[in-house]
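Q: I have 297 residues here and want to know how they pack in 3D. Can you give me a structure?
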Amino acid sequence: MDKFINLFTDFGFKKIFGEEPNKDLLIHFLNELLMGKEKIKDLTYLKNERFGKHKAERKAVFDLFCENAEGEKFIVEVQRVKQEFFKDRSIYYSAFAIQEQAQRGKNWNYELKGVYTIAILDFSFNESRKEKFVHRIQLLDSETHDIFYHKLSYIYLEIPKFNKNAEELENDFERWLFAFKNLHKLKDKPEELQRGIFLRLMELAEIASFSKKEQVVYQESLKDYWDLKSAIDTAFSEGWEGGEQIGLEKGEQIGLEKGILEGKIETARNMLEKGFDEKTVAEITGLTLKQIKNLDK
């Protein structure tokens, strides 16, 4: 059994970064990610579910959604497997944080607060540049390359490309990247993660310190993570027919459609059997209460 949690699991990510008592960890991570340009002193967690103007419109459910003291919005997403349109999804999600700033009445002058969309990826999307694993995207003038608009930023972290070992880490930003990639593989606390904010990270991430309920939920979340990975691997192997590859994106999409829902349903059933209430099951799995009730029946 692992000693420390996997930060790419839904439970692990929200345990470390999504709970009010631990928000200093999220603030520290975001400040390191922003390279000191936008120092965050405090954050307020916002409701992570956003709806369109009409009920029929597709909603957005963020992993984390918060704002700083200046009203700037931060969408933080963990992307576990590659999706064909994951860039489109991040643009779509940011639109909710922009549009909801609209003020009623004729006096609003369209002034907006900054919106940062941050995607922490458990895959690589740009294999042509193996050394580049941090992508900072803003709107630019195509001729002068000057930044056209400073208030909209997209940051993508390709975690698999980060290959430094513990002894090579030079700063706190690299320590966070190392934690995302390697925390669940560690058998002990490395010296490089026994300083400052990382002392708290290591204490919170130790599975043995979880309550019995938390350990059950984490193991279910971990199973979801590996089931999804397995579904993608299966999709790759099924993507070859008659010696010809169906295609990377199509194979991944097959795995996503097959694996995500099946994994959530199986997790929900296991949690119901262990006595968890329907609301908790819905929050953990992302299934609706109606779906949970049907499973319960």
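Q: Anything worth noting?
A: The beta strands are 43-45, 49-50, 60-61, 64-68, 73-79, 115-121, 134-140, 147-158, 240-241, 244-245. The chain has two domains: 10-207, 212-296.
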